[in-house]
Amino acid sequence: MSPKAVGPLAQSDQIILRLNKLLAAPGGLSTLLSTFNYTLYILTHLETKTAPLRTRLLLLLGRDATIPAGPSSIAVLGSLLSQARTTIRLFGLLPIYAWARQLAQGPKPGQDTVLYATTVTQCALYAYYQFLENVCYLTDSGVIPPSWLAKFSKDGGKTAGVYLVAYKAWCLGIACDFVKLAREAQLQRQKKARRSDAEIKDIDNYIADKEFNAKWWNDVIIPAAWFPMGYHFAQFNEGGFPGFNLGVMGVCGVVAGWANFKRLWDSTTAA
C-alpha cells in the first residue's frame, strides 16, 4: 500500500477507536449526540442563509439551481438525533433520583446553607422538567393515551401547554446555577477579606485563588450558554429570546457541552 494512503487510514483508524472509547465512557453517548446534534443545527441554519448565494453560483456555472422541496438531509439528520436524545432522556429521572437521594441526607459538614438550598431547588426543578417531558414524549408517541393527560391539563390532553411548563422549570433550573455562582463568589470574597497580611502574601493562597477564578469563569459559561435556549422555549415573554433562531440554538448547545465533550475526548488518548 502506498505510504500516502497509510497515513490517512491510520488516522481514521485512531479516530474510530477513540470514538468507540468515548461511547463506552459514562455519559459519552449523550455527550457525542448532543454535540453532533447542535453542530447540525448550525449547519442547517447556514445552509438556509446561504441558499440564495448557492443558487447564484449554480446559475453562473450553468447548472440546475432548483432547490429541492422540503428539509435538507442535514436538517432531517438533526431532527433524527434530537428525537434519539429525547428517547435517551426517558431514563434521565434515574440519575436525578440518585442526586435527590444524596441531597436528602442533608448538607455536608461545613456546606453553605444557601448553596445547599439552591441545589435542592435545582434538583426539584430538573426532576419536574424531566417528568413532564417524559409524559409529553410518551403521549405524542402513542404510549400514553391523551385522555390520561387530559385529567391533569386544561387543554384536552394536548402536550404543547405541558411542554411549556416543563421548559419553564428547565429555565428556572438553569437560573439556579447563576445563584450558586453568585453565592460562591460572595463566599470567596468573604474568605479573602478575613485573611491576615501573611496569608495574603502566601503563594499557596495565590495559586488557590487563581484556580478558583479559572474554575468559576468556566462554570459560568455553561449556564450562560443554556439560558438563551431555556428562556426562549419557556416563553416568559411573547417572542422568546430576542434574535433566537436555529443557528443560535446550535451555538448555545455546542458551547454549553464543549467542555464536557473535550474532557471525554481527551480521556480517549489514555492507553
Descriptive overview:
The chain is mostly helical. The protein has two domains: 37-63 and 71-91, no CATH class; 94-271, no CATH class. It is built from eleven helices and no strands. Helix 8 runs antiparallel to helix 10 (203-234). The longest helix has 34 residues, at 160-193. The two termini are 28 Å apart.
Helix and strand topology:
Layout: H1 3-24, H2 28-49, H3 51-60, H4 73-88, H5 93-103, H6 113-140, H7 146-150, H8 160-193, H9 197-201, H10 203-234, H11 246-267
Helix pairs in contact: 1-2, 2-4, 2-11, 5-6, 6-8, 8-10, 10-11
Mean pLDDT figure: 88
H/I helix tally? 11
Give the termini distance in whole angstroms.
28 Å
Q: How does the helix and strand content classify structurally?
A: mainly alpha
Number of domains: 2
Q: What form results from the Cα inertia axes? A: globular
The count of DSSP E runs of length 2 or more, i.e. the number of strands, is 0
What's the gyration radius in Å?
Answer: 24 Å
Unreliable spans are: none
Strand content: under 5%
